[in-house]
């Protein structure tokens, strides 16, 4: 978790979906974030607009912001089943991580695959992330091929068990929206080994779930503390379980998309700090 003034908060890529790279860095820094996330399509857009890797790195340094996480790795189970365009997206994820020194590579899986294919693919992706200098974080989503925490935890455990001493291991990304809408039980979270979680994503849910879960997830998430999720309870549960992980703010919202990036970043920072202060938790840096 993090301290009440949130020195280690990351502004996830999808909280500022429409911002240019320059707007993203400046808005995050001015709001108080020390890290940002970047998605493949956002990186490619920046390159098309004339940004070089060196120029992007220089702007991050100028504003004192780290690129802490990259997303989304999503073609890692039996990658030969995917076409070259999709495989190149995953290659770009690792390029970004290695070039900018990202701490985490975020992975999800929207397609259905046999369990062993998921294990084998996750192992290979973990090794690629390690070579890029990052740790791989696996996120479950109720509408995806990895629908619940139980399956995600089993996959991570299967890959972590045989890893040699000193080798990087994959971990879990716990997103408050997915935990709430996926009806994850507190005992499932409490049973996680402390080192199994590499990132906690904070956001909030509508008081009444929409019938279209996917639409709600992509368009109507709420800022932390402005919805119906028990974020304070979640953070305190993680603390009691001995789980310490960097915190990111990920709010996919059409309403926020319509606002200027600086306003969205400032609101995201303020609301998250209030939640963290109420929960009175402390956390490592990004």
From TrEMBL:
Keyword Isomerase: yes
Pfam families the record matches: AP_endonuc_2
Residues covered by the Xylose isomerase-like TIM barrel domain: 25-266
Keywords: Isomerase
Keyword Isomerase assigned: yes
An MF annotation (GO) of this entry: isomerase activity
Superkingdom to which the source organism belongs: Bacteria
InterPro entries per UniProt: IolE/XylAMocC-like, Xyl_isomerase-like_sf, Xyl_isomerase-like_TIM-brl
Protein name, UniProt field: Sugar phosphate isomerase/epimerase
Species of origin: Streptomyces lonegramiae
């Amino acid at each position: 978790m993090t301290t009440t003034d949130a020195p280690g908060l990351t502004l996830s890529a999808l909280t500022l979906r429409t911002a240019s790279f320059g707007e993203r860095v400046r808005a995050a820094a001015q709001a108080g974030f020390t890290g940002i996330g970047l998605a493949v399509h956002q990186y490619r857009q920046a390159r098309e607009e004339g940004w070089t890797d060196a120029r992007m790195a220089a702007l991050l340094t100028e504003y004192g912001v780290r690129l802490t996480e990259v997303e989304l790795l999503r073609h890692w189970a039996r990658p030969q089943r995917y076409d070259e365009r999709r495989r190149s997206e995953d290659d770009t994820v690792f390029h970004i991580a290695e070039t900018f020194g990202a701490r985490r590579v975020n992975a999800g899986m929207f397609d259905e695959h046999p369990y062993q294919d998921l294990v084998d693919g996750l192992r290979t992706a973990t090794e690629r992330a390690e070579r890029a200098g990052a740790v791989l974080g696996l996120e479950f989503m109720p509408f995806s091929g990895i629908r619940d925490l139980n399956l995600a935890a089993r996959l991570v455990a299967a890959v972590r068990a045989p890893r040699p001493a000193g080798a990087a291991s994959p971990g879990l990304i716990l997103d408050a929206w997915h935990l709430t809408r996926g009806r994850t039980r507190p005992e499932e979270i409490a049973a996680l080994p402390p080192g199994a979680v590499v990132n906690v994503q904070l956001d909030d849910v509508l008081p009444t779930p929409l019938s279209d879960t996917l639409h709600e997830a992509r368009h109507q998430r709420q800022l932390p503390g402005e919805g119906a999720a028990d974020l304070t309870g979640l953070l305190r549960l993680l603390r009691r379980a001995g789980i310490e992980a960097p915190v990111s703010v990920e709010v996919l919202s059409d309403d926020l998309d319509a606002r200027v990036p600086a306003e969205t970043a400032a609101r995201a920072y303020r609301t998250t700090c209030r939640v963290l202060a109420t929960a009175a938790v402390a956390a490592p840096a990004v």
